[in-house]
Amino acid sequence: MPYNPALVAPMRAEMTRMGARELTNSADVDATIGDQKGSMLVFVNSVCGCAAGNARPALALALNHKPLPQHVVTVFAGQDLDAVARARQYFGEYQPSSPSIALLRDGEVVHFVHRHQIEGRSPQAIAADLTAAFDRFFGAAVA
Question: pTM of the entire structure?
């Protein structure tokens, strides 16, 4: 059973304020990720404490960096069940994880951050890892 929409509304709003586009069903996911060219960050949002205290703040810091992925999208675990299940199909052999962050280039996962790489780490440390991945996979030399 999905979470109460009123409970997750502030967590969704936090992501959209960062510029992320919400994908709320499998058709949205297929239309956005399925034919994607270029770079994309997919954030699997969650109600857990490590999403609130670590992952979302880290993402906010990382999104102030250049280069950035061309597209930033989010699905919400525990709420948008079909969208999350479909997004995870694009993540290949990476185990399901909430929260998590997938960086894609031309539809292929080039970097993945699991929950265990988020829990117990500061937002600054997570953001440093993300920005290093942005440089590596989305930098000018890659484009």
Answer: 0.94
